[in-house]
Amino acid sequence: MRYLPLSDTDRSEMLASIGVDSVEDLFVDVPAAARLPGPVDLPRQASEAAVERKLSAWAARNRAAGAGPFFLGAGAYRHHIPASVDHLIQRSEFLTSYTPYQPEIAQGTLQVLFEFQTQVSELTGLPVANASMWDGSTACAEAVMMASRVTRRRKAVLSGGLHPHYAASAYTLAHTSGVQTRRLAAAVDDEAAVIAAIDSDTACVVVQSPNVFGAVTDVSEIARAAHAAGALLVVVTTEAVSFGLLRSPGEMGADIAVAEGQSIGNGLTFGGPYVGLFACRNELVRQMPGRLCGETVDAHGRRGFVLTLSTREQHIRRDKATSNICTNSGLCALAFSIHMTLLGGAGLAKLARVNHASARSARDALAAIPGVEVLTPRFFNEFAVRLPKAAHVVVEALAKRDVLAGVPFSRLDPGAGLDDVLLVCATETTLPEDIEALAEALAEEIAR
Amino acid sequence: MTMQSVGRPTRAEIQPEDGAQGHVGRGLLQDEPLIFERGRFDMTGVDFDGTADDADLGDLEGLVRAAPPALPGLSEPETLRHYVRLSQRNHAIDLALYPLGSCTMKHNPRLNEKMARLAGFADLHPLQPVSTVQGALAVMDALAHWLKTLTGMPAVALSPKAGAHGELCGILAIRAAHEARGDARTTILTPTSAHGTNPATAAVAGYQVQEIAQTADGRVDLSDLAAKLGPHVAAIMVTNPNTCGLFERDILEIARLTHEAGAYFYADGANFNAIVGRVRPADLGVDAMHINLHKTFSTPHGGGGPGAGPVVLSADLAPFAPLPWVTHGPDGFELIERAEGDAAAALGRLCAFQGQMGMYVRALTYMLSHGADGLRQVAEDAVLNANYIKARLSDVMSAPFGDGPCMHEALFDETWLEGTGVTTLDFAKAMIDEGFHPMTMYFPLVVKGAMLIEPTETEPKRELDRFCDALLDLAAAAKAGDVDRFKGAPFSAPLSRLDETAAARKPRLRWTP
Questions:
Q1: Residue B279 located in a structural domain
Q2: Is B23 on the interface with A (CB under 8 A)?
Q3: What superfamily in CATH does domain A67-80+345-447 come from?
Q4: Could you give the ipTM of this predicted complex?
Q5: What is the pLDDT of residues B331-348, one digit of tens each?
Q6: CATH no. for A83-339
Q7: Partners of residue B358 in chain A, C-beta under 8 Å
Q8: Which of B173, B200, B136 is nearest to B364 (CA)?
Q9: Does B50 touch chain A (CB under 8 A)?
Q10: With contact defined as beta carbons under 8 Å apart, do B365 and B372 qualify?
Q11: Is B185's pLDDT higher than 90?
Q12: Are strands B155-157 and A276-280 parallel, antiparallel or unpaired?
C-alpha cells in the first residue's frame, strides 16, 4: 500500500527487536471477543487512478456554481480566489504542520496568525481578534456564551435578521448551560423590536449586518440601548467582503464582532471548512474563546510570536475553561490572510464596490419584472425579493434551466411564513449575461 | 562542551535585532518582517474586471466607512516571498518525524487534496437545490457508510466541525436521551488522564465533572468507577486506547457497569487510529464516539485546523442526532434539514450548513485508497512503530506503566532524568536541534514530566531508527552531565526559547504602527 513504508522484512525485524512473535501479541490487551478476525465488509485497497475515477464521477454529478448563472449567498459567497492563495496553502510547511505548540519551530504559522489577528482587528474595528474559530455560526454561538460570562446574565436577544442557522447554532450551545436565546420574528428591519426586547436581564443583543435579507443597518441605536441596559452588543457579518465598504462593527458600538471569513480566500466547498472571525474590546479578552497569538522576544531579544493567555483554555483549565474549543481553523485563516494581503485595504474597498455595483444591476433587472417586489432597501451584495409564487418552486424550476436563482428563505426558516421570499446575491464573479439569464428565466417562470 | 556541541552556533554572540529592521538572510533562511512593515497601503495585488464609482453609493449614505481598512497590500511576487519565507520557519510532517502524541501526525496524501479541489466539490454552494448536489450527498452517504461499518455503529452525525465539537454533539445527544425519559442527571465522569476537551465539553453541556482514579498500570480504576457511578451520572467519557497509549483491558466491564447505572458510554475517538479495522467500538459497548478525520483519516492538520469530528451513535442515541443528515428518497438523496417526522427529536443544529465537506472528500478518498485491508494494516503498523520505539528507548528512558505492549504511542516520564538537571522541557527543546519535532510533553497530566511519542504508521523504519538514535544520544548527554546542550536549546532553530511569561503578562495581540 502506497502510504505504508514498512516492508514485511522491516516488520519481522521490528517484531524481533520488540521480542514478540507477531503483531497479534501487541494487541493482547484487547478482549478476544472484540478482535476482528479479518477485514470488515468494505472494498479493498485501490490504486490512485481508481480512486480518482470514483471521486470524479461523484463530482460530475454536482452542478458547480461556476458552471452557469449563479445567485446564491445567505452565509456563503462565491468570489474569485487568486491562484497564489491555493498554491501557498499547499506548501508542506503550512499544510502538514500542527498547532504551534513548539514556537521555535513554528514561527511561520505564528507570524501568520499574528498578521491574521491584526487584519481581523482592523476590518472589524475592534482592538483584539483571536486566531480564528471553526466558522461564523459557531463563532456567533461562542459570542453569546462569552457575553453571558462577562455580564453574568443568562438571556440573549437575537435579531430576526440573524441567519436562522446561526440562531439555531447559538440556541444549541446556549440552552444546555441555562442561557436562553430569544429569537425575534424574521424581518428585514427589526431595530425597534430589538430595542424593545432588551431588559435588565439581557446579556447580549445579537444583530447581523448585512443581515440575512441583505439589509445593511446602522446598529448605533441598538448599541446605545444595549449599553444603557448593561448588555453587550454582538454584531455578526456573514459576508466579510462588506468590511471593505461599510462602517465597521466596532465603529458602530459593537462589543464583540463575529464573522464568517469564507468570502476571503476560501471556496464554497458545500459549506465547510470555513473560518470564523472573532474580535472584541480589550477589556473582554480574558473571557474570549479560542486561541490567541501574541508577540514576545526570544532569549536573545529577537522578536517572535507564541500562543498566549492559554490559561483560558481547556488544556489548562479543563472544566473551568472559557470554551471546549481546541483547534482553530488554521489553514482557512491562512487562506484568508494571504488573500487579504494580496488585496490590501485598497483592493478590498474596490472589490466591495464592484460587488455592490453587481448586486445593484441584479436588483434593477429583477425589480423590472412584473410581480417581483424588492424587499431590501439598502444592501451590500445580496437582497430579498418577494415573488408571486413559492420561492422554492421557482428555484427548482430555474435549476432545471441551469439557472441557480438564489436561496428560498423557507429553506433556512420553514416556519417563518415567508415562503415567497427569495434571497439573491451577486458578486464580482456575476457577469451581465448571468443577470440577463436570471431575469429572463424568472420572468418566464412567473408568467407561466 | 562535548563533541556534539563544538562548533554549534549558539547565537549567544548575535546582537539583538531591532524588530523588523533585520532584513538579512542567513543561508537559505531569509528574515521576513510583518506585512504591515513591508506593504503599502495604496497597493493591491489583485486586478478587477469591473469598475465601480463612489457616486453610486447614494443608497448607503451614513453606512459607508470613511476610508478603506488600514491594511497594506502586496503584489503577487512579494506575497509569494512573504509566505514562502514564513513557511520555512515551520516544522512539518513532510520534513521529518512529527511525533506529537495524541495528535496522529501521519502523512497527508496529496490525492486527497486533488479530489477536494474538483470543481464539483470545491465550487458548490451549501444551499443549492438538492437536485444539483446529488454527488455531494452521495459522498456524505458513502463516508457515513464507511464510518458506521468501521465502528459497527448504526448511525453517524457528520456535521461537527472538530473533535471538541463532536464531543459536544455526543454529550448533547446523551443529554437529550436522558431528558426524553424524564431522567435528569447531573454528572459526567472522566478519568484523570482525559484530554482537557472532555471535562470542558461536559461543563459546556451543563454537567458537573467528576474524575475517576487511575490504577498503577495506567488504566481506569474499576472500583473507583463503580463507587462513583449512580443515578446522577449521565455518562462516562473514556478515551480508548487511552491517553497513556494503553488499551483499557477492562473496557467491557467498564461498559457493563456504566450501562447498569443507566449511564451512557461516550468514547473519545482521538486514538481510533490504533484500532481502526481491527476493533469496532460497538463491540466494546460504546454508545457514542467522535472520530477526528484529521487524525485517523489523514486530512491535513493545517497549522491548527480545520478538523472534522463526525460522531457515531448507538440506536438509542440516533434519534437525537443534530440536523442535517442525508437519506435515500424516491428521487435520489435527500437532505433532512427540518426537525419534523423522523427527525422530530433531533437536537437541533450544531453549525450552519452541512459541516466540513472538504474534509469528508479527503477522508473518503483516503478510505477508498486504503480499503478495509489497508486500514487494518494502518492500525497494525501504527502499533508496531510505537512498540519499536518503546523497545529501543526503554533501557534508557523510564516508562511509567511497565514493559507491556503499548498501542499507537509510547509514553515515558521524567524519572530517568532525575539528578541530571535536565527537565522534560529541556529534553524536548534539544530534540529540535536534532531535526525532530518534540513529542507531546507534560500530557497526560497524570504522569510526571510526560513524554508522549506517536510515530504513526507512515514512518519508515530508517526514520524511526534515526529518531531513536538521536534520542539515545541526547539521553547519554543528559546522563553525562552535558546540561549546556539542553538548557539553552534549541540552538539551531530560527529563534531560541521564547519568553511566554512576558507574552502573557503584557499581551500584544496585534501589530500597531
A1: yes
A2: no
A3: Aspartate Aminotransferase, domain 1 (3.90.1150.10)
A4: 0.98
A5: 999 999 999 999 999 999
A6: 3.40.640.10
A7: 269-270, 272-273
A8: B136
A9: yes
A10: no
A11: yes
A12: unpaired
